[in-house]
Specification:
Oligomer: single chain
Largest sheet: 2 strands, antiparallel
Strand content: under 5%
Number of helices: 3
Mean pLDDT: 84
Radius of gyration: 14 Å
Number of strands: 2
Order of helices and strands: HHEEH
Helix content: 25-40%
Distance between the termini: 47 Å
């Protein structure tokens, strides 16, 4: 049964698992994976600007794109992630300072 975003729960889980894998690989390589708050807010504004047809605010802020389904507040904070509609891109990931 699809959720309110139009995706089946297993698809959302599969997409989230792929994102977690990208984050895990970056962390294993010693990379920083989190954006700045400023960049996260920029990304979120791009999603919520009223132009993106995939943005859903309720019941939670989500992307309803067929290749996504993510919780946007989490996704916009990750350097490893991109907008499936090419509205914002992955950012260069830097090594963690030691």
């Amino acid at each position: 049964m699809p959720c309110k975003c139009g995706k089946r729960p297993f698809q959302i889980l599969a997409n989230a698992s792929k994102a977690a894998g990208r984050v895990g690989i970056a962390l294993i390589k010693g990379k920083t994976v989190f954006t700045t708050e400023e960049l996260a807010n920029e990304r979120l504004k791009i999603c919520a600007n009223g132009i993106c047809p995939w943005y859903r605010e309720k019941p939670v802020m989500r992307c309803a794109h067929p290749d996504c389904g993510c919780f946007l507040k989490a996704k916009v904070m990750l350097l490893t992630e991109t907008c499936p509609d090419s509205r914002w891109r992955e950012q260069p990931i830097q090594n963690n300072p030691t």
